[in-house]
Write a structure and sequence with these properties.
single chain; alpha/beta; Aspartate Aminotransferase, domain 1; Aspartate Aminotransferase, domain 2; seven-stranded mixed sheet; 14 helices; 10 strands; about 40% helix
Length: about 350
């Protein structure tokens, strides 16, 4: 049997869609924006056109605030929604809880009420269970519900599920934030049209969206989109205060202008999702691997032995997901190729066959 060291690893890894390069149309957009001088801080034609594109996308006038990264988008969203002594309800798997180094807590001084779930999705009863604290001066007041679409586990909320959450939250005076770092992948998985996006955001009662771009072919930059414009009145000051105001904003807004033009944001996500399905099909039947559920978006969560994981990670990087169960995460991107998947599948097969023989 050929050694793993003798196999050529994929050109692109399966660690994260953050690891991917930048789409050529985005590079072209940045290059066009680099000609001449433009006013700083968003007072430029690129930002005006991107703002208009977002309003068209959501089918209503929205307020958009461009920021450097996803953590900044989430912190700005929450900062704009939170009142004094209010808390945020989220799942224990939420990015704001697990992967942002406590940024909401440190920067905003906010309490996160994290709820354990099997699928990284909140349910109305999770919100209702926290309403006991409302009006009690000894408890942080639940004020914002934050959900992720698609979730950190690659699961999806249905339109009906989000609408039910929003109705429950709004009935108790809370607002709804959607972390959409991979909102394009979710939109494609649910049908892949602008109407689908509106159905689980505007029409389902979401107030503010962290709209992702970096994971979907952009160089950097995210957008905070206020679907309820009344909630945006302090955002212009808060963005500066939390150090998320880009001076040369045109280089972010120009990327979004290109991303939203001709549905590039959906095309990139559709391809990424399709590559995840192909990777699942290539590896699911390999002996020694527990493939996990077929992917709905661009993330797979297989399980294999620790020794196999270590060997594969040295050969082609990817991340552990749950060390206790030897579950890992493989992610595809807009630039993943079928050749990458074929090579990676060969490597997985090689390692697991070798490990079985040793065992």
């Amino acid at each position: 049997m050929v050694s793993l060291d003798d196999l050529t690893p994929p050109e692109r890894s399966f660690a994260s869609d953050n690891s991917a390069g930048v789409h050529p149309k985005i590079i072209e957009a940045i290059s066009r924006a680099n000609v001449g001088h433009q006013p700083a801080y968003g007072y430029d034609p690129y930002t005006a056109r991107a703002d208009a594109a977002f309003s068209e996308l959501f089918g209503r006038d929205v307020d958009v605030f461009y920021v450097w990264n996803g953590t900044g988008a989430n912190v700005l969203s929450l900062a704009s929604l939170l009142g004094p002594a209010q808390a945020v309800i989220c799942t224990s798997a939420a990015h704001i809880h697990v992967d942002e180094t406590g940024a909401p807590e440190r920067i905003l001084g906010v309490k996160l009420i994290d709820v354990d779930t099997d699928d990284a999705k909140l349910k109305p009863e999770h919100i209702e269970a926290q309403t006991y604290a409302l009006g009690n001066e000894h408890h942080a007041q639940p004020g914002v519900v934050s959900i992720t679409q698609s979730t950190e586990l690659g699961t999806l909320y249905s339109v009906e599920e989000i609408a039910a959450l929003s109705e429950t939250a709004h009935r108790s005076g809370m607002t709804m934030h959607l972390d959409g770092a991979r909102i394009a992948n979710a939109t494609v998985a649910l049908g892949g049209t602008t109407d689908v996006l509106r159905s689980f955001t505007v029409d389902a009662g979401i107030d503010v969206v962290s709209f992702g771009g970096t994971k979907n072919g952009m160089m950097y930059g995210e957008a905070v989109v206020f679907l309820d414009r009344d909630l945006a009145k302090h955002a212009i000051y808060l963005r500066k205060q939390i150090t998320q105001l880009p001076s040369k904003m045109r280089f972010i807004s120009a990327q979004f202008e290109a991303m939203l033009a001709d549905d590039l944001w959906l095309d990139n996500a559709a391809y990424s999702n399709a590559m995840a399905v192909l990777l699942h099909e290539r590896t699911a039947s390999i002996p020694g691997l527990t493939p996990g559920s077929a992917p709905k978006v661009n993330a797979l969560f297989p399980s294999l032995t620790r020794s196999a994981i270590v060997a594969l990670q040295r050969w082609c990087p990817f991340y552990d997901w749950d060390v206790a169960t030897d579950t890992v995460r493989w992610m595809t991107s807009w630039d993943t190729t079928e050749a990458d998947i074929a090579r990676f599948g060969d490597g997985v097969e090689n390692v697991l066959e070798s490990h079985t023989k040793i065992s």
